[in-house]
Structure formats: C-alpha cells, structure tokens
Structure of Neutral metalloproteinase:
Amino acid sequence: MTSRHAPVIPPHMLDALARHGAGHLKSRAQNTLSIDQQFRQPMSARAKASIIHQNYPDSAPGAPARYIFDANQQTRLPGELVLEEGGEPPEDAQVVQAYEDLGATYRFFHDVMGRHSIDGEGMALLGTVHYGQAYQNAFWNGEQMVFGDGDGEVFLPFTRALDVVAHELTHGVTELTAGLEYRDQPGALNESISDVFGVMVNQYARGEDVTQADWLIGADLLAEGVNGKALRSMAAPGTAYDDPMLGKDPQPAHMDQFVNTRSDNGGVHINSGIPNHAFYLIAMELGGNSWETAGQIWYDTLTDERLASDAQFIDFAGLTMAHATQRFGQRVAEAVMNGWRQVGIGP
Ligand SMILES: [Zn+2]
C-alpha cells in the first residue's frame, strides 16, 4: 500500500471527536471515520486512474490542466464538472479556492522544482469539492484530490488551506516517485514530505522567508471555538492543539518520543513530527527561503532512485546529506547533519 487514500486529518483526531464531540459533532465524526474506513480496502485505483485521466488530457509544458468537480454532498467521484482550465468560475468559493490552490501548487512544483505536474508529464489535476455531508477530511486517492466541507464548528471547508491542498497533491508526487509505503517509518516519511511541501507552497505563495513563516499545517482549517492553532506544528510538534473535543496533539519532535502504535497505519501522522522538525531546524539554520536550499535537497532526495519504498528515517536522512553535499557543498551538508542529529537521527 502506498499513499492511496492519504487523508489529512488523522484518525486520532476524529476518534476523539467521535467520543467527546458535542451533540451532532459525534455523529459527523463517526460518519467521516466510516467513509475513511471504506477506502482502506485495497482498490484497483491505477486501472481506474488511467480510465478517468483519458477524459482529462495532460497539459502543455509550463501550465496546469485543472478540472474541478462538485460532488453535491454525495460520495460519488469525480462528481459534476463545474470548472476547467481557463473557464468561467461559478459563484462557489470552494470551487474557486480549489482551482486557485491547485494552480499555486502547480506553479511551485514547476517554477521551483522544474516538475511539470504530479507525474512530471503534465498529468491533469482533478479536484472534487463538497464531498459527502459535512465530511471532515481531504484526501488523495491515487487519481484525484477530494475535499470535504467540514462540519463548520470544528473543521472549516478544506479548500481554505493552501498547505492542505499542496499536502494532498504532494502525496501524488510521492506515489509516482519514491512510492513510499503508507505505514510505519516510510509512511511517516510520506506524511512528512507532504507537510514539508505543503508549508513550502504556502511560504512561496506568500513570499515568506523561514523567519516570517508560521510553520503550521492547516492553520486556516480549525474553527474559532477550537483550542488550537492548526493540525500540526513543524516548529514545535505536539503543541498544535489541546482541545476537550479533539484531544492533544500527539506528535513527537525527537526519536526518544517515537510512538509505537498500530493505529493510523503505525502512527504515520504522529511520527511524521520527527522528520518535520528536522526539516524546520535545517531550514532555520540555513536561513533565507526554505525552498531554495532545504527544499531542493528534499526534492532531490524524493526523486532519487536510491530512496527505497520501505525507507526508514535514517535512510532518508543519509540521502539528504549526500544531496546537500552534491548540490551545495560541505557547509550546507553540515547544517543538514546537525538538524537530523537534533531529532535523534544519524551518527
Ligand atoms: Zn497526508
């Protein structure tokens, strides 16, 4: 299993909400969990993907081909086509946000990393909004991105957060490059890579350097009454939220606190805090814009054929040091090594 159906909201948040949510929030969370559960069954998404993508051709180099669909609160995909590349946008904020966020993510991968869409060959970008009823998640299913409306009281519509849209699209890039397995350490690396590129797309779009950025994931997603800043914090994993309905952010920042669990595919959204924090430390030490040095090293590593689909944290760290040396030289490689050491990984 690779990153197929990789949702942004982990089961531990929804489990907490299903137990401690006020009133109908309980049933909303149970409903979201039951939808997420269906997708854990193996599916022949690759065969399906090629059929769907036959209808939505690749784009010419240098530009995206975006298709936004409306599921009309149902769970059939992709739904009704409501906006395509260059078309007249309907009066629906979520359609427009999804379209713009996919465009900003395309621009980042193209202009900064030299990658023409998810597969590097102009693959059309498909996104469905208004998926399910008050569905509290967003995911990449191997062929397209899917966004729920949220419940409005804890989770706001998922298209609001550019970093979350970029997170989902990056799962597509990872699936077609390193193909990291979606469980245990390779799964946590898979999740972390989506967070790393998610924050970089945000920072690039806003023109923020490493000191201006908030290093949060999904800061625009949590409704006002929630006691929390975001879903995750790369600067301080474990501090993003602490709420009576959602529980407390369980992310570790160091290998000493590595969480051994069978839930969440072996803690893929939990232990991702460790490589997330390493990236943050390295980017801060290097200074400037995250995407110019640390981001290039991460991209070189992600697209390196030597990165195995069952890579452990230490394997990934070793390759980042090799690429730092190769592209930027000894000083940068030392900063990379220091960052990994501070989270308990490496020599
Ligand atoms: Zn994810």
Summary: Residues 278 and 342 are 7 Å apart (CA to CA). Confidence is low (pLDDT under 50) at residues 41-48.
